[in-house]
Amino acid sequence: MSLLSSLLVLIVAARLLGRLFARYKQPELIGEIFAGVLLGPAVLNLIQPNAALAGISELAVFLIILSAGLEMRFADIIGAMRGRGLLLAVISFLVPFLGGVLVAAAYQQDVMRMIFLGLCISITALPVAVKLLGSLGILHTRIARYALATAVVNDVAALFILGIVLNIPQHVTWGGAASSIAVAIVKLFGLGLLVFFLNRLLGWLDQRNLSIQAVPEALIRYFGPEALFGVVIVFVMVFGSFTEMLGFHFVIGAFFGALFLDKRHFLASRYDDLRGTLGSITNGFLAPVFFAYLGLEFQAGAFSNIGFPVVVILVSILTKLFAGWLGGKLVGMPSRESIGLGCVLNGRGVMELVVAGIAYQKGFIGPAMFSTLVLMGIVTTFLTPLLFKRVYSSAQLAEYSRAKPEV
Fold first, then answer.
1. Which of 4, 165, 237, 279 pairs with 60 at a CA distance of 20 to 30 A?
2. How far apart are the first and last CA of the chain?
3. DSSP 265
4. What is the CATH code for 3-401?
C-alpha cells in the first residue's frame, strides 16, 4: 500500500474509532490507538510501520506538545508549585515512579528501562483529567483544583526528566550517569531561567503600557491572518532547535517555547483563532496519525512473559490511587475525596505515550517494554472514569457537584 493510501486508511479508521469511543465517554486517543493495532501487524497486517509514517508521527508529536504548552500558563505552573499543592504533586509523582523502578528491577531490567517505566507510570495526563472533570461537572471543586495542578507539575517534571535521560548513554551504570545528569540539569535549569526571565520582561513591559500585542497585530496587517500561525510555529521551532543544540530532544524546546506564549501576547480573538487553527490541524489530522502509529508499532507477540504487563498495569493503578489518597489526606481532604483524587490522577494518555514513543524511537526501550507502556496507557485511561464512578455514586456526585467552589 502506498504512503498516501496508508495515511488515508489510517486517518479514516482512527477518526471513526476515536469518535466511537468518544460517544461512550472515553478519550478518543484509545480508539485511535486501537485503529493502529487493528490495521497493523498485530491483527490485520494491512499497514506496516515505516520511515515515512514515522516522520509524520514526529511532526505530530511536535504539534501535540505545542498544543499542551499553549494550554498551560507559566503563572499556573508557578502557582501549582506553591503551598500544599506542591506536596501533593511530589507524592503523586514519586510514589508511582518508585513503584515502576521496583517492578523493572524485580524483572531484571536495565537502568534505562527502570527510569522510563517509572517515568511513564508517574505521569498524569492533563487533557484526560480536564475532560473527565468537565464531563462530571466538578471543575470548580477541590478535587479538580488539586488534580489539574498536579497534572501540570507532573507533565513538566516528566519532560524535564526526559530531557535529562536523553543525555545519558543507553548502557550506563548509576554511578556513570551522575556527571551526565548534572550537566543536563544545569542546561535545563538555564533554559527554564531563560523562559522565566522572558516572562518577567514581558510583565515589566506591560506595567509600562508597552503591549507586546502590537507585534502579532503588525504581522497580521502586513502578511494576513494566516501569518500568526506561521510565526508561532517558527518561534517554537527556534526554541526546539536551541534545545537540540544543547543535546536535548526537540520537543523539550517546543514545550518551553509554547509555554512562553501567553494569552497576554495576543488579542483574545487572535489567541482563540490560533488555538482553533492548531486544534484543527493537530486533533483533526496529525494527533490521530500519531496515536494510530503507536498502535501500528504495538506487538502482542513481544509479551514473552504476560505477567510483566499485568504487574505493570496493577502497580500503575495502585500507586496512583495510593499517592492520590495519601496526598489528599495530607492536604486536608476527607477519605472519599482523596480516593476520588487518586482516580483522576490515574489517567495517563497523551504525555505518557509521547514519552514512550520517544524512548522507543531512540532505542532506550525494546518492543516488549514499549507495548507494555502502550497497553498501560490504554487500560489506565479507560479505567479512570469507571473507578471514579465507583467512588462517587450518581447521587453523591450530584451532591458534590453542587458544592460551592473551594477557595
1. 165
2. 57
3. G
4. 1.20.1530.20
